[in-house]
Amino acid sequence: xxxxxxxxxxxxxxxxxxxxxxxxxxxxxxxxxxxxxxxxxxxxxxxxxxxxxxxxxxxxxxxxxxxxxxxxxxxxxxxxxxxxxxxxxxxxxxxxxxxxxxxxxxxxxxxxxxxxxxxxxxxxxxxxxxxxxxxxxxxxxxxxxxxxxxxxxxxxxxxxxxxxxxxxxxxxxxxxxxxxxxxxxxxxxxxxxxxxxxxxxxxxxxxxxxxxxxxxxxxxxxxxxxxxxxxxxxxxxxxxxxxxxxxxxxxxxxxxxxxxxxxxxxxxxxxxxxxxxxxxxxxxxxxxxxxxxxxxxxxxxxxxxxxxxxxxxxxxxxxxxxxxxxxxxxxxxxxxxxxxxxxxxxxxxxxxxxxxxxxxxx
Amino acid sequence: xxxxxxxxxxxxxxxxxxxxxxxxxxxxxxxxxxxxxxxxxxxxxxxxxxxxxxxxxxxxxxxxxxxxxxxxxxxxxxxxxxxxxxxxxxxxxxxxxxxxxxxxxxxxxxxxxxxxxxxxxxxxxxxxxxxxxxxxxxxxxxxxxxxxxxxxxxxxxxxxxxxxxxxxxxxxxxxxxxxxxxxxxxxxxxxxxxxxxxxxxxxxxxxxxxxxxxxxxxxxxxxxxxxxxxxxxxxxxxxxxxxxxxxxxxxxxxxxxxxxxxxxxxxxxxxxxxxxxxxxxxxxxxxxxxxxxxxxxxxxxxxxxxxxxxxxxxxxxxxxxxxxxxxxxxxxxxxxxxxxxxxxxxxxxxxxxxxxxxxxxxxxxxxxxxxxxxxxxxxxxxxxxxxxxxxxxxxxxxxxxxxxxxxxxxxxxxxxxxxxxxxxxxxxxxxxxxxxxxxxxxxxxxxxxxxxxxxxxxxxxxxxxxxxxxxxxxxxxxxxxxxx
Lengths: 362, 484
What we know:
The complex is a heterodimer. Chain A has one domain (about 10-350): Hydantoin permease (Orthogonal Bundle), CATH 1.10.4160. Chain A has 16 helices and no strands. Chain A has helices at about 10-25, 25-35, 40-65, 70-75, 80-95, 95-110, 125-130, 135-160, 180-190, 195-200, 210-235, 245-250, 265-295, 300-315, 320-330, 330-360. Chain A is mainly α. Chain B is an alpha+beta fold. Chain B folds into three domains: about 5-115, no CATH class; about 145-260, no CATH class; about 275-430, no CATH class. Helix content of chain B is about 45%, strand content about 10%. Chain B has helices spanning about 10-20, 50-65, 70-75, 90-95, 145-155, 185-200, 205-215, 230-240, 275-305, 310-320, 330-350, 350-370, 375-390, 395-415, 415-430, and strands spanning about 25-35, 40-45, 85, 100-105, 110-115, 160-165, 175-180, 225-230, 245, 255, 435, 440. In chain B, the strands form three sheets. A five-stranded antiparallel β-sheet of chain B has the order 1-2-4-5-3, sandwiched between helices. In chain B, strand 9 and strand 10 form a beta hairpin. At the A-B interface, helix 7, helix 8 and helix 13 of A face helix 10 and helix 15 of B.
């Protein structure tokens, strides 16, 4: 029997670790390209916005123990709720495409000396199908397993980078024009979906007083970790940061104990990749969960299979089209992100408030 | 077999009836009579029942007694603690097969089952798989009664419940389900009992069969109940809120629910300082990770990411592997196979061939293969080190050796990304597995901070005043003390 209940601690870890892990692949390089030495600033701004939305959903959780599906069902009926959840399923499935292609590119660059064939990446889907069929409780538990892996590996890499970096490269602060900074903010704002995740967790955990603060702070902490990595990354590479893809794999390269040949620090990167894998698969797990809600049937591995079938097809379609995926990710998926990660939490509040007025009338 | 009126009045008829069922020639009948000519017959299984006891404590008193027909008087004359009146033929048959004697009296419907069971067995000694430098050295034996005695010796508590079950249609193996009432969750022994009863099999020769019966997923690569050979560990686990199973004929006792972290704990951790225990535990975790992953990582480094190897080491490896006719993965696989064959042979071979085997294995196979340029030195070092590492956690060896092979195959085919994926897959699998409601990865997932004190680090005794939360015991406190 698959369970979908989570503990507050698990949600906190997901918000902190998984959201940070997924952002550590290409995001720092993108931010360096967009904002130069102020790259950490948009990261913090984005984190603030996303944390605000997470907090808003948490506050809603403090008012009701219903799931978002139940709220929609009560307000608009079962059919509308199912349609919205089907759309969420599609959104989460497509949200996995950009990090998946980033992961694929990272694998090609960091895991192999020569570029391997697409087949090497395909076993990812065995894992994704399996993990996707396990429900949200499993996602929460894997997050707890990933916490020490993430903390140890990320800390090792960042410390190794910090010992050889030049923080003066980050000075002077905020020299970029506002438009450039807003552009950087928009990239993160449109792409990441903490609000949507929190909306799906709603009703699947028991809210207690103070949980909103814990969850929001965890989300903020995840963002701060990313900002720190961005800062260290820029301090290591300075203006060359824009051409250094997959920042986390490169910030420790100049650590005096390792030479160019003999990069034992990569072992930490490989271990960190486990957390990244779970972070990517979380989108697939969420898509399978939404599909399960949308169909109203019993939980079945077929939901995960269906989501992964779509992703496998997209992987073949977008093979070697990394730039195209990145563009689609920020343009088309950006608008989808605006709807699902920001408009939907607002809708949840509206639905709840309207329901409250109805309750008062009755 | 008629159950209602199994025992007949005439002695000859009674013996004939039981002999119809127990036809084997090692079922012996000893007929004797008292001073007043009252006839008796003792039916027993040769080899299992104690003939000396039968002669001294049953035959002799009855021979010398002047007894009438009263069955109660006969029972009083027997100077044995274990005498019970049999109800029907079924009782007599199972009593005899259990190693006891059935005493029939001529002219009486009554018969007695006399506890004369004395199966051949070994003495209580230190178990070979759980040796400790400090701490108790007693180990379980194959005799269930001795084992229960060893447990009772340590747990003189009225809370200790021992439920006797039987498993195996033909073997009728005795299984003792032990737990501490009020400390172990009630559902756990109930579920275990249900699982044992639900399985009908001919023979239960060892506790490993019961282990399969009580596992929720018997095909899983990971076990679902822990095993131990020492009564002190067994009792400690009962006190934590687990249920224990002792099987007649097996020196390995089982405990459930099981958490993977248990295998990293050794008995000695609790008898030495917590600092030392923590270091050793960390070492065990590292050793298992190295043992499972090192051969796979070595292959990957050679095949897919040479950058991983430090430059000086790389030159050494390059000089060693030059001229080796196999690819790194085939070479490693072959070396591993040689190790497994040697391991298997050294267990099965008679002890006196052992020395020859070591010489052949280490010198002829290892040294000559390296000199001949068939296998490289690093491959042998890595496999040997991996084997040693895995034996730091002997209870997990079955699983870890299989995992090592799996990682080796994945490393040779997919490379480093395969290793990351397989690790993630295993973590995901383990996170969803449970043993009697307790997740295998507890106390890490779901995280129970308090239980971490006895997980990969070992806190001192005064920091562990409560029983593990993961086991959900209603009686939470195990140590009351003002010390902190």
